[in-house]
Amino acid sequence: MRRGRARERRASARDAVAQSPFGQVRNPYAPMKVISDDQVEALHRASLRVLRDNGMEFQLPRAVEILREAGAAVDEDGKRVRFDPAFVEEKLATVPSRFVLHGRSAHRDLEFGGNSAIWGTVGSAPNVSDRERGRITGNFEDYQNLIRLSHALNALHALAGYPVEPCDLEVRTRHLHALSAAVRLTDKPQFGYAIGGERMADAIEIVRIARGVSREDLLSQPSIHTVVNSNSPLIYDKALLEGAIVMAELNQPVVYTPFTLSGAMAPVNVAGALVLQNAEALAGIVFSQCVNAGAPAVYGSFTSNVDMKSGSPAFGTPEYAKAAIASGQLARRYSFPWRSSNATASNAADAQAAYEAQMSLWPVVLGQANYIIHGCGWLEGGLCASYEKFILDAEMIQMMQEFLKPLETSEAELGLDAIAEVGPGGHFFGCNHTMARYETAFYRPMLSDWRNFENWRDHGAVETSDRATRIWKQLLADYEPPPLDPAIAEELDDFVARRVAEGGVPER
């Protein structure tokens, strides 16, 4: 009790971090197009030719049998599966265009599809950094702190993986400790890794327990999601297929995302990379429907390019922006929810990180992405999660979310009374129209400093990254965990203890 009052005193002694309220975001604008409808159809037809003539390698025998029994053709090697175009079209027709992903608390539920816009955290970074410690290997303490930060930032809607890999936890039981901590630290929707069926099943059970629902409820209430990446070009690996099967059987959504980098794992031009991306995404989604017709699936896009001199991935490029918007056009052609990313190749939370993030965010907003993974904290092409970048991204996302609010033009909002009261000449600072809207007239920045140069200099001339450091520290100091029923906490402890005693998942 004393600790809570002390925290309140600390919070009241400083300004609260300026945030927009948490809630489902809608995109009211018509989605942008970078290619014509005829070009979308050309990409679609080319993708069907790839699936028919080249096929896709599925490295899990059970997955091959599921596809064979559903009617797909399998080569003599028992791995390469070829898809007749009519078969593809038949299976794609059973994918739901919308679904609700449930959080631990009902007010965190999110609708995927339509004009919804959902932002998720950075996921799977092996390293973590901040301005004081520099770059270090991912660990459980920073993993938990980044989840606390993700919970505190209203701009973020869901966890999109481990914000940083807790490398100090033993691999076979890491998922048990990591996910059980995550469901305690935030009530936002959760993510599990589809690296094998056992790991995926454990993740689903932890989320089921945390939500306090039955397995029957789970079938109609998607409560956890995962990403299954293809190994471009044209391979789905064994472990991820095992996890995808478990998810589809229980009606939990899978985001099928090819890892298509132009010039490396895909053709060097954007159009060719999009054909490969589309073929691989469709193959994964078709597979999900062969496992369980009607299982929720999301069209994932990640097409970007590499630096042709070094081979290093590049993000936030013009090519990435065009590929993203075209991917949205393809996803809407099939009526699928669409996932994209907020990505940068910058190695620091600097100007490059900001402008590359902007080049990633604008196309996913204008192209009407439903789910933006790696929304906050991504650096080094995904190799590092940065505390300061979390805040920079959250500021940019909040501004995007404000941009998505419809412009009001009712009679009261046209300002005619204000114009009559003030003009000609004068100013609008103190007129009735202004005073009635003083608190809500404009977006209040979390991070930006809009003082003039002299005031900024006289108050210490704090630059953006330093302000970001202060903000993430304040958010962590003010963090309060969401309530969790003691009986549910005990059930979670018992499940994790039992699975740890059993040895967790097999080594691969």
Task: Please characterize this protein's 3D structure.
This protein is α/β, with parallel strands linked by helices and 508 residues long. It has a domain at 25-31 and 93-403: Trimethylamine methyltransferase-like (TIM Barrel, Alpha-Beta Barrel). It has helices spanning 2-12, 37-54, 61-70, 85-92, 140-152, 171-185, 197-211, 215-220, 238-249, 270-291, 318-334, 351-366, 387-403, 416-422, 432-436, 453-458, 464-478, 486-501; strands spanning 25-26, 56-58, 73-74, 80-82, 99-101, 110-112, 116-121, 127-130, 134-137, 190-191, 224-230, 235-236, 254-258, 261-262, 297-300, 304-306, 313-314, 338-341, 371-376, 378-379, 384-386. The protein has an 8-stranded mixed β-sheet. A 4-stranded mixed β-sheet has the order 3-4-2-12. Helix 2 packs across helix 10 (270-291), helix 5 (140-152) runs parallel beside helix 6 and helix 6 (171-185) packs antiparallel against helix 18 (486-501). Residues 1-13 have low confidence and may be disordered.
What layout of secondary structure does this protein have?
Elements: H1 2-12, E1 25-26, H2 37-54, E2 56-58, H3 61-70, E3 73-74, E4 80-82, H4 85-92, E5 99-101, E6 110-112, E7 116-121, E8 127-130, E9 134-137, H5 140-152, H6 171-185, E10 190-191, H7 197-211, H8 215-220, E11 224-230, E12 235-236, H9 238-249, E13 254-258, E14 261-262, H10 270-291, E15 297-300, E16 304-306, E17 313-314, H11 318-334, E18 338-341, H12 351-366, E19 371-376, E20 378-379, E21 384-386, H13 387-403, H14 416-422, H15 432-436, H16 453-458, H17 464-478, H18 486-501
Parallel strand pairs: 2-12, 7-19, 8-21, 10-11, 11-13, 13-15, 14-16, 15-18, 18-19
Antiparallel strand pairs: 1-7, 2-4, 3-4, 5-6, 8-9, 16-17, 20-21
Helix pairs in contact: 2-10, 2-11, 5-6, 6-7, 6-18, 7-9, 7-18, 10-11, 11-12, 12-13, 13-17
